[in-house]
Specification:
Blueprint (H helix, E strand, L loop, with lengths): L7 E6 L3 H12 L4 E5 L23 H14 L4 E3 L2 E6 L6 E5 L4 E9 L3 E3 L7 H6 L7 H4 L8 E5 L1 H11 L6 E5 L7 H9 L3 E11 L4 E5 L4 E4 L1 E4 L3 E3 L2 H5 L23 E3 L10 H18 L22
Parallel strand pairs: 1-2, 1-6, 2-3, 6-15, 8-9, 8-13, 9-10
Antiparallel strand pairs: 4-5, 5-6, 7-14, 10-11, 11-12
The structure holds flavin-adenine dinucleotide.
Length: 320
């Protein structure tokens, strides 16, 4: 009977900036790893990132993903398409089994979840084109600099809209908070909006764009044009594989880890946007470096053998 293949040292789930960087590190540590990816990285939405270290003239999200993938594959990383539907952990051996939607299974000593989040997007005709043209932006930390002095709106439930609008006042004198749903602001936030000169507008009935700016029609039938709209409608942390194993998840559906990126489940690590904290490319690749190094250091040592060495005695020969 054929012997079952030994478990991988590490299975990486997700090939965004986090998972691809982890693959580069693990392969360069001469570890047996594999990446499985469903192909929906948030980074693919980025028209051009200007805060990604090492790209002084900016980099498109798709170009960055291609470069990170080439770098990992250049060292021999194996990356396959697929969506992991279930993750199990043997209570005795601690070995993980991941099962893809098509039934393919992999066993691994450690697993890295690099599954990201999925943004809740506004209902808007031509949303992809609006993001590509930078009239809708998804991340103020990432790109508010590029929107400096624009006429900006934040579209969100009112308290969230005010918090983000006040943050954006660093970049523009003209920032409004547009309600995505009915509701009155917390009195302290209402005072903050007045102090910061942020206009708090009624609930939007519709949001459209013409490629150069966005137009909200509000419930009072007024129309308002903005150069840039930031929707802040939340996101779904892709944490369910970890949560099913008992990993601690915060109120946003993001996974909590220790300072080596290990979750509350032994051998299960989480990196990138799926982890509690700032959702940024530089954070995702930093998490990846920390997790991959911690995993390498916990695995049995993989000392390099001398490829020229011959067994000295018959006793050292492998049995047939
Ligand atoms: C419009 C926009 C602009 C942005 N601009 C910037 C910027 O300028 N600078 C910056 O730092 N950040 C920016 N970001 C944020 C940045 O894209 C994310 O921080 C980054 O992509 C996170 O990387 P990640 O690897 O954690 O997750 P992702 O890149 O989201 O990758 C997760 C991967 O896991 C896969 N996956 C999920 N579940 C499974 C499963 N069960 N099985 C297999 N695969 C799975 C997904 O399909 C996806 O491919 C922007 C985001 C958006 C939307």
């Amino acid at each position: 009977m054929a012997e079952a293949a030994a478990p991988l040292d590490c299975l990486v789930i997700g090939a965004g900036p986090a998972g691809l960087t982890a693959a580069t590190y693990l392969t360069r540590f001469h570890r047996r790893s594999l990446v499985v990816d469903a192909g929906r990285s948030r980074a693919r939405w980025i028209p051009k990132s200007h805060n990604c270290p090492g790209f002084p003239f900016g980099v498109a999200g798709t170009e960055l993903l291609d470069k990170l993938r080439s770098q990992a594959q250049g060292y021999g990383a194996e990356i396959v398409s697929g969506c992991i539907a279930k993750l199990e952990r043997d209570a005795v051996t601690g070995v993980f089994t991941a099962i893809a939607e098509d039934g393919t299974r992999w066993e691994a000593t450690c697993v890295i979840l690099a599954t990201g989040i999925v943004d809740k997007m506004p209902a808007m005709p031509g949303l992809e084109e609006a993001i590509a043209n930078n009239v809708v932006r998804m991340c103020a930390v990432c790109d508010a600099y590029e929107a400096s002095d624009d006429h900006i709106a934040v579209y969100a439930p009112v308290d969230e809209a005010i918090r983000h609008a006040v943050f954006l006042r660093t970049f523009s004198r003209s920032v409004a908070a547009v309600r995505s749903e009915p509701g009155e602001p917390d009195p302290e936030l209402a005072a903050l909006a007045r102090e910061a000169k942020v206009a708090v507008l009624p609930v939007a009935k519709s949001l459209e764009h013409d490629g150069r700016c966005c137009v909200f029609k509000l419930e009072d039938d007024s129309a308002h044009r903005f150069d840039t709209v930031y929707p802040v409608l939340g996101g779904d942390g892709q944490s369910k594989l970890g949560a099913a194993l008992g990993a601690t998840v915060d109120g946003n559906g993001e996974i909590e880890t220790d300072d080596r990126q290990q979750t509350s489940v032994d051998g299960l690590y989480a990196i990138g946007d799926v982890v509690t904290g700032l959702n940024q490319i530089s954070v995702a690749v930093g998490h990846a470096a920390v997790a991959a190094t911690a995993i390498h250091n916990r695995l049995p040592r993989n000392f390099r053998e001398d490829p020229e060495a011959q067994p000295e005695t018959a006793a050292e020969l492998p049995s047939p």
